[in-house]
UniProtKB/TrEMBL annotation:
Record-level Gene Ontology MF annotations: xenobiotic transmembrane transporter activity
Protein species of origin: Massilia violaceinigra
Record has Transmembrane as a keyword: yes
Residue ranges crossing the lipid bilayer per the database entry: 12-33, 53-74, 86-105, 111-132, 144-166, 172-194, 232-253, 259-277, 313-332, 353-373, 379-401
Subcellular location: Cell inner membrane; Cell membrane
InterPro entries (alphabetical): Efflux_drug-R_Bcr/CmlA, MFS, MFS_dom, MFS_trans_sf, Sugar_transporter_CS
Listed name of the protein: Bcr/CflA family efflux transporter
Membrane topology term: Multi-pass membrane protein
Length: 409
C-alpha cells in the first residue's frame, strides 16, 4: 500500500482531490497573524496616536470581542448554508477591514476596523474547525488538529519577526497591508479549490427553536465542558503574553523593537514543541491523560514565572522562558480540547465550534483587559495573571473530567 493509503489523517475519499489540510492550516493561521503581526507596533501606536496603553490595548480587546461574539452566529450559519458561502463572505470582509486598518487616521477608527476584521477572521477559523469534523473520520480529528497545529505554529513564530521588521522599515500600517494580501490569497483559494463539505445542512440551524435546541444540546454536554473550559483557560494563558509581552519586553526591559520578534518567536516555539509532543503522547496515553499532562505543565509554567519574578529576576530571558513553557502547554492542551469539544456533535459541528470559540474569546477578553489595566511598569502583574491561569487550567481538568477520564490513570 502507498503512504497515501496508509495515512490515517487523509480526508474522506470524496475530498481527496482538494487540499483540505493546507486550507485548514491557512484559515487557522489567520487568527494568530491578525494579532501577532502588529504586536511590535503597540508601543509605537501609543506614541503615534498619543493614546494610553489601555486604549491601544483595545485594538486587541475589540478584536477578541468581535471574534468571540461572531462565533455564536457564524457556526450556525455554516451549519445551515454550508461552509463555502460563509467563508467567501467572511474572507471578503476581512480583506476590506484590513485595508481600513491600514488607512486608519486615528486610534478610534483603527479599533472599529479591527472589530470588523475580527468578524471576517472568525468565519475562517470557525469553518476550519467544522471542516475537520466534516472531512475527516471522527477518530482522526484530534491527530488532524495536532498536525495542523504544528504547521500553525509557524504563524506566531514568524509573524512577530516579520512584524518587527515591517514596523522598523515602514511603520505599523505595513502589517495590515500584509494581512490584506494574505487574506485575498486565501479567498482566491476558497473560490477555486474548496468543495462544500457540509453534507448535513440543517435548515433550522438559524431558527430560534433550532438554535436553542442545538445550544442546549452542546452546553448541556459534560464532555463539551470537560474539553472546552480547560482549552479556553489555556488560551487565556497564552493571550496574557500575546497582549502583554511587547509592553513588558520593550518598555520595561528595554528590548529593541527589531529584536522583539525574535524574543516572541523563541517563546512561541514552545507551541510548536507542544504540538509535536502532543502527537507523540496521544497514541501512547490517549486524549484524557495527554490533557492532564498539558494542564500540569500549564501550572508549572505560571508557578515558575511568578517564583522567578518574586526572586527579583527582572530579565527578558525570564519572560521568554515563561512564554515558552506556557505556549508548550497550550500546544498539548489545544488539539485535545478542540477535538473533544466538537467531535461529539456531527450534526451541530458549527454550533459546537462557535460556542467553544466564544468561550475562548471571552476568557481572552478578560485576560487582555486585566493585562492592560494592571500594567504598572513591572513584571509582577503579568506573572500573577500567568500563575493564576495556570492554576485554573490545572484545576478545570480535574473538576470537569468525565467519569471515564477520571478513572484513567
Amino acid at each position: 500500500m502507498t503512504m497515501r493509503q496508509t495515512d490515517t489523517t487523509a480526508p474522506l475519499a470524496q475530498y481527496a482531490h482538494a487540499p483540505i489540510l493546507l486550507l485548514i492550516i491557512g484559515f487557522l493561521m489567520l487568527q494568530p497573524l491578525s494579532t501577532d503581526l502588529y504586536l511590535a507596533s503597540l508601543p509605537s501606536l501609543a506614541t503615534g496616536f498619543g493614546a494610553p496603553a489601555a486604549t491601544v490595548q483595545l485594538t486587541l480587546s475589540m478584536f477578541v470581542i468581535g471574534f468571540g461574539g461572531a462565533q455564536l452566529v457564524i457556526g450556525p450559519l455554516s451549519d445551515r448554508f454550508g461552509r463555502r458561502p460563509v467563508l467567501i463572505w467572511g474572507l471578503s470582509l476581512y480583506v476590506v477591514a484590513s485595508l481600513l486598518c491600514a488607512a486608519a487616521p486615528n486610534i478610534a477608527l483603527l479599533i472599529v476596523a479591527r472589530f470588523l476584521q475580527a468578524l471576517g477572521c472568525c468565519s475562517a477559523v470557525i469553518v476550519a474547525r467544522a471542516i475537520v469534523r466534516d472531512a475527516y473520520a471522527p477518530a482522526d480529528s484530534v491527530r488532524v488538529i495536532a498536525r495542523a497545529s504544528s504547521w500553525l505554529s509557524l504563524a506566531p513564530l514568524t509573524g512577530p519577526i516579520l512584524g518587527s521588521y515591517l514596523q522598523v522599515a515602514f511603520g505599523w500600517r505595513a502589517a495590515f497591508v500584509a494581512l490584506s494580501i494574505l487574506s485575498a490569497l486565501l479567498l482566491a483559494a476558497v473560490v477555486l479549490r474548496l468543495p462544500e463539505t457540509n453534507v448535513h445542512k440543517n435548515p433550522k440551524a438559524t431558527e430560534f427553536s433550532g438554535l436553542a435546541a442545538n445550544y442546549r444540546l452542546v452546553l448541556g454536554s459534560r464532555e463539551f465542558w470537560a474539553h472546552a473550559l480547560p482549552g479556553a483557560l489555556s488560551f487565556g494563558s497564552i493571550f496574557a503574553f500575546i497582549s502583554g509581552s511587547s509592553l513588558v519586553l520593550i518598555r520595561v526591559l528595554g528590548v529593541p523593537t527589531e529584536w522583539f520578534g525574535y524574543c516572541f518567536a523563541v517563546g512561541v516555539s514552545g507551541y510548536l514543541t507542544g504540538t509535536i509532543v502532543c502527537r507523540r503522547l496521544l497514541p501512547l496515553f490517549g486524549a484524557a491523560v495527554t490533557l492532564r499532562m498539558g494542564s500540569t505543565m500549564s501550572l508549572a509554567a505560571g508557578a515558575v514565572f511568578l517564583a522567578a519574578v518574586g526572586a527579583g529576576l527582572a530579565h527578558w530571558g525570564v519572560v521568554v522562558l515563561a512564554m515558552f513553557m506556557t505556549m508548550g502547554a497550550h500546544g498539548i492542551n489545544f488539539p485535545v480540547s478542540q477535538s473533544g469539544s466538537v467531535s461529539p456533535f456531527p450534526q451541530q459541528a458549527g454550533t459546537a465550534a462557535g460556542l467553544m470559540g466564544a468561550l475562548y474569546m471571552s476568557v481572552a477578553f478578560g485576560v487582555g483587559t486585566a493585562v492592560g489595566a494592571t500594567f504598572d511598569g513591572t513584571l509582577y502583574p503579568l506573572a500573577l495573571i500567568s500563575c493564576a491561569l495556570g492554576l485554573a487550567v490545572f484545576a478545570s481538568v480535574r473538576v470537569t473530567a468525565t467519569p471515564i477520564a477520571r478513572a484513567t490513570p
